[in-house]
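Sorry, explain these tokens?

***
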Amino acid sequence: MLGGADKNVVVFDKNAEHIIATLKGHSKRVTSVVYHPSQSVVFSASPDATIRIWSVPSQSCVQVVRAHEGPVTGLSLHATGDYLLSASEDQYWAFSDVQTGRILTKVTDETAGCALTCAQFHPDGLIFGTGTLDSQIKIWDLKERTNVANFPGHSGPITTIAFSENGYYLATTADDSSVKLWDLRKLKNFKTIQLDDNYEVKSLIFDQSGTYLAIGGTDIRIYMCKQWSEVLSFTEHGGVVTGVAFGQHAQFLTSTGMDRSLRFYSL
């Protein structure tokens, strides 16, 4: 599943090797897409300030969530599959019901006053992280709607954040060509991976077992967790890599890029 600069969301069947749905409705490019883990439902976000909920079988938009006044920059599905977290340049994060499209909570950080650039749920669904335009990474308690931890150290806008499936680690990237790893139990940065000068990171993800961390951007790099050493790299894309994702049990990796291609790699 991928979102594009052509304003469409495309659902691709890997086994059949063909496109099964093209979802049209956004008025600007699609910047975030999430597939529901147990239903044929897709969520997408765009700088058009909307979040759309799609039925894949009918190729139709079933809900338009208008939680924000500005471009939607982050999208994450709660562990239950029932709620959606979104972040926006309007400085708010929002929590919405996926069945009704109703906005349940909308909060801004009064102390920061800065655009949000990304958002991601922790696997336990009790906390989540946001990144900001001014280099801040903030951890929030969902129930209390309060900022409970902050991770300073990056420079430049935060581009993406990812929690490990065991919930112990947070990986973050910014426009400073580095990946920082944080211990969520000790609330501290324990490793920084410094990438090449001007290296862009657009996507970051742990596999489900917590064995690997994949980085997509200028190219694709796979790191072994705990050692945090690079074990694989791929340079086949003809443009910047915009998304990376692991297949089940990390049997393969898939990527999308500005060269308009979708690629699969055997690991």
Q: What stands out?
A: DSSP finds no helices and 26 strands in the chain. The two ends are 20 Å apart (CA to CA). Residues 52 and 64 are 5 Å apart (CA to CA).
